Amino acid sequence: MNIRIDASTRDLIARAAEVSGKSVTAFMTEAAQAAAERELLEQRFFRVDAEIFGAIDDMLGQEGKVNEGLRGLLHARPAWLD
Which residues, given as ranges, of the chain have pLDDT below 70? Predict the structure, then answer.
């Protein structure tokens, strides 16, 4: 990837990379990866085709099933409160 940045931004990134003990390439790669992961994890809209949407809609329309193990866990007194 090639990017164009102004001198003040380049200097800021270079200083931050130096302080963190990383090369500018390593610093920028880690920062870009973290930003990309955060952006993808924060997505609230997912585009799917009609077939997948229909399958999900069908599942959501079904009556819920009781999970006795989970019910017991949620009604149990936490050990750290004893």
Answer: none
Sign of CA dihedral 55, 56, 59, 61: negative
* Rounded Cα gap, residues 35 and 55, in angstroms: 32
Name residues whose C-beta falls within 8 Å of residue 56's C-beta, 6 or more positions apart in sequence: 48
Contact between 23 and 17 under an 8 Å Cβ cutoff? The reply is yes
Q: For 44-55, how does the pLDDT look when each residue is reduced to its tens digit (9 = 90+)?
A: 888 899 999 999
Taking a C-beta distance cutoff of 8 angstroms, is the pair 31, 20 a contact? no
Contact 17, 24 (CB under 8 A): yes
- Amino acid residing at 48: V
pTM over 0.90: no
- How far apart (Å, rounded) are the C-alpha atoms in residues 64 and 67? 9
